[in-house]
Amino acid sequence: MVAAVKRATQSLLLAVTGAVLLRMAAGDSYLRYVNSWMRWPLLACGAFLVVLALVDVLRQQGSQDDDHEAHVPRAAWLLFAPSLVFFLVAPPALGAHFAERAQSAVVPVDTTTEVDFPPLPEGDPVPIVLDEVLLRAAYDDGATLADRPLELEGFVSRDKAGTWFVTQFGMNCCAADATVMRVAATGVDAPADDQWVRVVGRHVAGTGDGGRGTPEVVVEDLELIEAPKNQYR
Amino acid sequence: MSGSTRQGALPSTSERGTGRPGGLPLQVYVVFAAMAFLVVAQQWLVPRLDSPALATWSTIFVAIVVQSIPFLVGGVLLAGVISILLSERALRRLVPANPTLGVPVAGLAGVALPGCECASVPVASSLMRRGVAPAVALTFLLAAPAVNPVVLVSTAVAFPNRPEIVLARFLASLLTAVAVGWLWLRFAGRVPILHRRSAHDHDQSTTQAFLGSVRHDFIHAAGFLVLGAMIAAAINTFVPRSIIDGVAGNVVLAVVSMALFAFVVALCSEADAFVAASLSAFSDTAKLVFMVVGPAMDVKLASMESGQFGGAFALRFVPLVVGVAVLSAVGMGWWLL
């Protein structure tokens, strides 16, 4: 039997939840779960919940009468769960474990119209994001990528067959809808899962054409790097 | 749940034993001590909780909760405005007296509330509390998260150059909301709906009444939101995608599994179009089913609604909505796509 949630405990629930939201949004940890534009809504919301709790505690203190203890369902206890999980597990940004099971990001391939990509910018190597590699590889056997050393960043994930990928998640709303973008890397041994890397490599013509399958790069240079603040695209 | 059927009555006075006059009840100290203990034990616990599957589950769980709470707070604020600040007369002018007419009006009014589905449960509940016919409030509940401009724009972005998908989604969602409203009016008038209401203190100022209503609605809904998020995160983490993808080939199976998938993953309605677009193995109609069922009903909403309106209500309302949403999406898909 679960005890009913007392009014003062309800205030504690609100205050703890509000404080956790403030804590997340004040630092960078909210970026592991939601988009960057959520910062201000989260701060406002966290502050509001704390104020709501304080107002109630102050108001109740003077009065002896507890008759107006609002009856709430016992499910309200569950509101402690996200705060506890946040402190105890400190959930990281999504990583290699989810990469194998997440939906692949859509490459919008439109075969009816001719698409002319501008050539890649100057540079040796050319820094390029994974979504652009996927998109350019989907057209003309990746003609616009040909013979250029590409500089990619992402974390390491691998499939069951042992191929490893430079990986990043795209996120629309929150981590629950994350879609995975990845480029297979060959030519060097894989670093540990979830390790962020910067690789320089050349696209293998034809891989990832038409948005089917994964583009592949032959790695020429591999560097281990720190994970960026916002790990999603 | 507690299984009580008359929650609408006075707030219980039976359970305040441990409160000392003027002080805090014992419960607060116990909870506080438990939290302090866990925070201290964190150093020891964290390495023991270090499994990739658990990490993925907790990331998705926390993400759903963190994403939803601001929308829920927005919803309870609006609900507070409706229950405390909006005058009886103003409400009467906004909602037609005849419920048969009120249902389609409520459906179209959904266009004006750009929020996620979590916001609309407390709003619908406060509308009922103020005497709006349940069918009308339920139509608003179903329409608001599905037909608002933010959702339609994100659908247009997720399906570039496919305006017919946006149109089909808008029409199918509106049709679902209005049809459920009318069906409820016609056949289910006698199903009791619990009106869980905030304790009405007698001599409160408007501000206090408003804050009391907001606080009550938030605590009420949030626990169920968390429960739904736990289930949705578990599905996301532990059910292999291959099972979901495996059924894409069969027309009937694809529609059924998309409806089921939308129900269990409980995505925010502003993001589900992107997920639907990424399910490339499925037909356009199956994707439409996903986008019409999701905002109308999912595990998180079902959990919140059974908390707000009672289990007996949810047992009828949830299957009704899912059924109507699937039929309307399939019909619209056959006609437009």
TrEMBL record, chain B:
Annotated Pfam families: ArsP_1
Main localization (coarse): membrane
Coiled coil ranges: none
Entry keyword Transmembrane: yes
InterPro entries in alphabetical order: DUF318, UPF0718
Membrane spanning stretches: 26-45, 57-86, 135-159, 165-187, 218-235, 247-267, 313-336
Membrane topology category: Multi-pass membrane protein
GO CC terms, sorted: plasma membrane
Domain of life: Bacteria
Compartments in which it is found: Cell membrane
Keyword terms of this UniProt record: Cell membrane, Membrane, Transmembrane, Transmembrane helix
Similarity section: Belongs to the UPF0718 family.
Protein name: Permease
